[in-house]
Amino acid sequence: MGLKEDLLKLKEEAKKLIEEAKDKNSLDKIKVKFLGKKGEIKQVLKSLGKLSPEERKDIGKVANRIKEEIEGLLKDKLAYIKRIELERELRENRIDITLPSHWIETGHQHLITKTLQEVVDIFISMGFSVAEGPEIEREDYNFDMLNIPKDHPARDMQDTFFINKDGYVLRTHTSPVQIRTMLTEKPPIAIVAPGRVYRKDMDPTHTPMFHQIEGLLVDRNITYRDLKGTLQKFLQEVFGKDTRIRLRPSYFPFTEPSFEVDISCSMCDGEGCRVCKGAGWLEILGSGMVDPNVFEAVGINPEEYSGFAFGLGVERIVMLKYRIPDIRLFYYGDMRFIKQF
């Protein structure tokens, strides 16, 4: 039998084995058997040296063609095996896309955080900037420089958390941020100071820690009308454009004159109901024109500059806006409550 017939026989043998192969491992063995460095085709070609140049050329062409055919058969069979394996895997691990998926519950911002950011954004849109300060505050910034007398009830041990005897307290409001700003910046000043504050209180409308945002505007010729216009714009953004406000005379050590600010009751549109106790109004915040003594304490000339300040509890806004009866619900961590908002 000649070399050409040997090569054709090997091709037929390889073809049969490839057809019978069931997996990639079998194909790899067939490839080594026929096409490897010590494969059977190589063994046959070792006898080329006994042939004439023309015969060697002819047998070489036949050998190359047979190797290409075997490689093609191996490639096709491998693709077929992969397709069969994929079909089997899809059949055995079939996913029914018509079944409802598992609900993955996502978190969201706490109602206090969300409202605080909304309030800040409103004032930023009105030209105010945000200022921050420490929660452990100097007593003189928290009281003295805000014109709060030594004998004022807010300075009693039962109302304020005193850190030590060195004159540090947990701030009872964010007003010290106003003091720090006026000590380091020159007018005009327009800031809001959001943050946590602390007082010794615990009942349905008070907690030892709560969130407050205070505002300060200082410039030449600032009047009561600027204060009222700013607060009316802000409160209508929060509670609706039909919200009415009124300012009632009051007293705060750091403002003169001082005003309590009420909004028309959203439950009865000011007609009087159980929520507003028949008054038609709901108290929302405190405000006033900055007391000249406060300006003098921070080195601002009260003869040249005037300004207004205001402060409100964020929890108070949330309770009124969402009709929540007890402030403590915000901090109990009850998911039944939190998920409602």
What does this 3D model show about the protein?
With 341 residues, the protein is an alpha+beta fold. It folds into two domains: 3-92, no CATH class; 111-338, BirA Bifunctional Protein, domain 2. Helix content is 41%, strand content 19%. The protein contains eleven helices and nine strands. It has helices spanning 3-20, 24-35, 40-45, 53-92, 111-125, 139-142, 175-184, 224-239, 292-297, 314-322, 335-338; strands spanning 129-130, 136-138, 168-170, 189-198, 209-219, 245-252, 255-264, 281-290, 306-313. The strands form two sheets. A seven-stranded mixed beta sheet has the order 1-4-5-9-8-7-6, sandwiched between helices. Strand 6 (245-252) and strand 7 (255-264) form a beta hairpin. Helix 1 runs antiparallel to helix 2, helix 1 packs parallel to helix 4 and helix 5 (111-125) packs across helix 10 (314-322). The model has no long low-confidence stretch (mean pLDDT 87).
